[in-house]
Design goal:
With 354 residues, this protein is an alpha/beta fold. The protein has a domain at 3-190 and 226-253 and 310-329: Rossmann fold, CATH 3.40.50. The protein is built from 13 helices and twelve strands. It has a seven-stranded parallel β-sheet, sandwiched between helices. Strand 1, helix 1 (12-24) and strand 2 form a beta-alpha-beta unit. Helix 4 (96-119) runs parallel beside helix 5 and helix 6 (200-209) packs parallel to helix 8. It is globular.
Length: 354
């Protein structure tokens, strides 16, 4: 039995991780700490809210004293750190929040963990601090470059990725300097249920349902490696359970797509859903292009954003070879599940876009 503290557990990846962990390890206690900023949604945790092994704490990771209290009160032995500001566009217009949460907040957690686990001796040997990071810390790739590996030099290009890179270095430093038992995982772009509607895939889905433009930055040929969120949760599980202390592990989908091709795929899938499910015509009467089978007509090209990385791709061989990881969802199955989830869970996303 383990006692987990999950920071940012009301966010997209954090909430999916909580659902996955509590389903896989029903005997474990899971404590979620979340500040419920714009992307944190407590409703994402409704399926586990009544579970006696689940605890929710509304608070900020920068509150070191609160973190210390939670670690002691719940005898936490595993801290899984998702909490982060993560939207690149927001980091360009308002970088201060990213410095505060991603750097200072991570340091606050590390200080609390060091004090409770090492200085005061609670779970001194068995503790684990797992830090969830991103492939964006590695910078950008050319079309023929090898995918990012764990030894790729850091070269962040946005305030968001720079703040995540800094947090990665702090986690590493607390291991090498103080002996804190840490692991880090760097993931590719996630998609799936509970994804905040400002991100590409849910934005395209919800905009089609409102007959609104589908904005494509620049030429739309930016390439990302897409990872179904439950595959990511399973990868983190493997790192926590079997990963070597002090090591970093890349978790990817081995699934590169250009942004414009993803948008066109979603348009095609949405048109097919409207053609085969008559009830959608009544539930989403504004979706005239989808009703007509012409969702692609909503595609609109806009000016590229500043510092837009051209390509990301993860090489997960280390995680595959050492931990037995491989994604289970293909993009074909994962994107279909995601689309149907948004069509069936209008109650969840509608509250976020009013």
């Amino acid at each position: 039995m383990s006692n987990l503290l999950v920071t940012g557990g009301a966010g997209f990846i954090g909430a999916n991780f909580v659902h996955y962990w509590m389903k896989t390890y029903p005997q474990d206690k899971v404590v979620v700490l979340d500040a419920l900023t714009y992307a944190g949604n407590k409703a994402s945790l409704d399926p586990v809210a009544d579970n006696p092994n689940f605890v929710f704490s509304h608070g900020n990771i920068c509150d070191t004293a609160l973190v210390e209290t939670l670690l002691k009160e719940h005898h936490i032995d595993t801290l899984v750190h998702f909490a982060a500001e993560s939207h690149v566009d927001r980091s360009i217009t308002g970088p201060d929040a990213f410095i505060e949460t991603n750097i200072i907040g991570t340091h606050s957690l590390l200080k609390a963990a060091k004090k409770v686990w090492l200085d005061e001796g609670l779970n001194n040997e068995s503790h684990r601090f797992h830090h969830v990071s991103t492939d964006e810390v590695y910078g950008t790739l050319g079309p023929n470059d090898s995918a990012f590996s764990e030894t790729t030099p850091y070269a962040p290009n946005s305030p968001y990725s720079a703040s995540k890179a800094a947090s990665d270095h702090l986690v590493r430093a607390y291991h090498h300097t103080y002996g804190l038992n840490v692991t880090t995982s760097n993931c590719s772009n996630n998609y799936g249920p509970y994804h905040f509607p400002e991100k590409l895939i849910p934005l395209v889905i919800t905009n089609i349902l409102h007959d609104e433009p589908l904005p494509i930055y620049g030429d739309g040929l930016q390439i990302r490696d897409w990872l179904y969120v439950e595959d990511h949760a399973r990868g983190i599980e493997l790192v926590i359970k079997n990963g070597l202390v002090g090591e970093c592990y890349n978790i990817g989908g081995v699934n590169e797509w250009a942004n414009i091709d993803i948008v066109k795929l979603i348009c095609d899938l949405m048109d097919k859903e409207f053609a085969s499910r008559p009830e959608l015509l009544e539930r989403f009467p504004l979706a005239s292009m989808a009703i007509q089978g012409n969702s692609k007509n909503l595609i609109s090209y806009v000016d590229d954003r500043a510092g837009h990385d051209r390509r990301y791709a993860i090489d997960p061989k280390k995680t595959e070879n050492e931990l037995g990881y491989s994604p289970r969802e293909t993009f074909k199955t994962g994107i279909k599940k995601t689309l149907n989830w948004y069509l069936d869970r209008e109650d969840w996303w509608r509250a976020l876009i009013k």
